[in-house]
1-deoxy-D-xylulose-5-phosphate synthase
Amino acid sequence: MDQTKPAIPTLGRYPQLDRVRAPHDMRNLSVEQLKQLADELRAETIDAVSTTGGHLGASLGVVELTVALHAVFDTPDDRVIWDVGHQAYPHKILTGRRERIRTLRQPGGLSGFTRRSESEYDPFGAAHSSTSISAGLGMAVAHHLRAEEDPAYRERNVIAVIGDGSISAGMAYEAMNNASHCGPGAERLIVVLNDNEMSIAPPVGAMSNYLSRLMSSRKFLSLRELAAKMAKRLPGRLERTAKKADEYARGIMTGGTLFEELGFYYVGPVDGHDMNQLVHILRNLRDAEDVGPVLLHVITEKGHGYTPAESAGDKYHAVSKFNVVTGEQKKGPSGPPSYTSVFAKELVRQAATDDRIVTITAAMPSGTGLDKFAKAYPDRFFDVGIAEQHAVTFAAGMATEGLRPFCAIYSSFLQRAYDQVMHDVVLQKLPVRFAIDRAGLVGADGATHAGSFDIAYLGCLPGITLMAPSTEVELMHMTATAIAFDEGPIGLRYPRGAGLGLALPAAGEVLEIGRGRIVREMTRQSGPEQGGIAILSLGPRLEHALKAADMLAAHGLSPTVADARFAKPIDTALVEQLARNHAVLITIEEGSVGGFASFVMTHLAKTGLLDRVRFRPMTLPDRFIDHNTQDAQYIEAGLDAVAITNTALEALGVGISMTQPLLKTANGPKS
C-alpha cells in the first residue's frame, strides 16, 4: 500500500468521527456532539459503500440509533446484536473497523454482516433474519447464571435490534414468548424494534398493520413518562397503585399491545432519528430495574439522510458502486439475462394458459423474480413475509386442492423450513414445486448465503425429484417440467448470476424425469490409458467440464462429457454406461459432500461397477468459503476447468499438471 496516502481517505474531513477510535470515546460526548457524530458517520457510510457496494439503505436508517446505543451502553461488555447484520456498517465504523470499511465484501475484507471472529463488538454472527431475540435472551440468562455463581461478575445489558420485517418470522415470537418465563435472567434484555415500514420489500400482513396502528399513539409516550415520574414521588403503596393504574390506562388508551401480552414492557413509538429522545430513553432503560424484558419501538426511515436513497422505491436496499453526488449506480456491461429472470419469464408465460399455477415467496419478490409474476397475476402471487416455514406448508395446503404452487426461496433460506419440506410436503407426496434460487456459491454475500447444501439435505428425502440446469435453456425446460409434474414434490436449483447468453427457445419443453444427456462423445484415445475419461456434470459446472475436455483433448485424451440434469432420480442407465466404457468417471456439482456424487457412488457400489472404474467425486470442500467473486470462489473450491483437468490426469496417472487453461475460449454446451 502507498504509505503516502492515509488508510482512511476521509481522515480530516469529519472532526468528531476522527476522535472516535472505539465506543468508549463517545461516552462523554454531549447530545449535540453525538448529533454531529451521527451526521459525519452517515456521510462516511455513504462514501465507503459508494466504493464497495452493499446494503446501504438499512445502514443509513440506523445511524442515530447506532450512535446512541454505543454512547449509552458499555459495549462490548453490554451486548448489541444486529438482526440479519446487513444494517451494521455504521456499527463497524464506530467499533475500530473504520480503516477497513472500504474492504467491505471484498476478497479478504470485512464481512457484509456481523461476524464473531471479526470483532469483540460482534457478539453474534448473523446474516439470516429473526435470530437476535433468541440469541440475546440466551446471553442475558447466561449472564444472570454467571452472576449468581460469581458475585464479582456484573450482569450485562443485552440489546437485540430487530427490523419490522424480521419480527414477522415465527422465531421472533417463540423467543419473546419464552422471555417472560426465563425469570430474572431476562430482565436485562432490551429488544429494539426498528420499524421502517420496509425490510427488503414493503412488509406484509397483520404485523405491518398492527405497527402502523401503534404509531398513532405517539402522544401516549409523553403522558406515560409524566405519570411514571409522578409515581416515583409517591409512597410505596401508592406507587404500586399508580403502576396498576398506568397498566389500566394503557389498556384503555391503546387497547394493550401484543408485546405486553407476551410479557414485554413496551415503550414507544420513538423517533429513531431524534438523538435527544433516543439517548434519554436508552439511559432510562439502562438504569431501570424490575421492569422485565423491554421492547423499545423505534420509528426510522430506510435510507434516511441521503436524498437518492430516500427517493428510491427500495430505499437503496442493496447497491452496486455509485456516484455519491448523483446517487447513480455504476452498471457493468450488459450481458445475458440472469437465471432468475429466465425462470420468472417462463413461469409467467406458462401461467397464461394454466390458471392452476400460483407462486409463493418469503419477502423476496424481486430477488426471486416473482415480482414479474405478481405484476402479471396479482391474485395468484403470495408474499408471506420472512416466514419460510409457513411458505412451504402454505404451498402444501394449496397443492392438496389441485393447484400447482411454486415456492421460490433462496437455497440457504430454504434450510429454515426443512421440517416443513419433509413432514408437510414430501411425506405426503404433495406436488409442491421448489424454485431454489442462489444454488451454489454466491460471491460477495459469502458463506451465510451460499446454496451449498440443498442437494444433500433434500436428496436424502424419499420420493423427491431434484433438477439442476446446466444452462438457461435447460432452466426453461426444467420450469416446464416442474409445472407438468403432478406426481410429487419437485425442485429445480439454479445459480445466482447471468446465463451463458444462449438463444432461448419460444417455450420450455417437458423433460423425461431422471434422464440425462451426452453432450460430447469421447473420441479415439491416443494416450497410454485405454477406456478414457467420462465427466458427469450436474448443473452449471458443465461449462467448465467442456473447457476441461478441450484441455484434455490437447493431450489426446478427449473425454466423454454428460449433463446429468437430475440429481434425483439419477439416470442409472447413463451412469452405468459411463462406468462400463471408461477408465475414469468424474462427477462434478456445485454442492456439498453427501449430494449427487454420493447418489452415483451408492448406485455404482450396489451394481459392482465401483470395482471397475476409477471414480472421482468433485464437490464443494468440507469447509465454508468466504466472500469473494463467484469465479474466485469456485477456483478456491477446486471446481474450475483446471481442477477438473488435473483430477482426470491424476486418476489416469498421467504426469501432466495444468496451472491455467490451454484455451482462452471453449465451446459452450449444446442444447
